[in-house]
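hey so u asked for the seq, here:
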Amino acid sequence: QVHLAESGGGLVQAGGSLRVSCEVSGGTFSMYDMGWLRQAPGKERELVAAINWSGAKTYYAESVKGRFTISRDTAKNTLYLQMNSLKPEDTAVYYCAADVDPPAVPGISWPRSEYDYWGLGTQVTVSS
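ran it, structure tokens below
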């Protein structure tokens, strides 16, 4: 059974940086497309970053482009999201998710956001 576990959230001042991690176990991490999603109070869950199984393709929401970086470490079975220049509007619960049956080659509709497994989330709070 695939299990995802986020860590690294916390309280940070606006303009600061934070890195959240997602450890993947119980499956073949190197074959999965991965994503980071967030949910703020009263809002729908939003895809903020995605990376394909090989690491060759990434996606960022316009609101975080240039500030956030998604990466993966195959040897550690871990997904990362480096968050810089944080803003109060980045405050949310951040979730990692895995698509265990991704396309071999990402097409024009990628990321497809068809995630099969989710972590429980980690809280990121950015103060003014």
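Residues 3 and 98 are 9 Å apart (CA to CA). The chain has a mean pLDDT of 96.
lmk if thats what u needed
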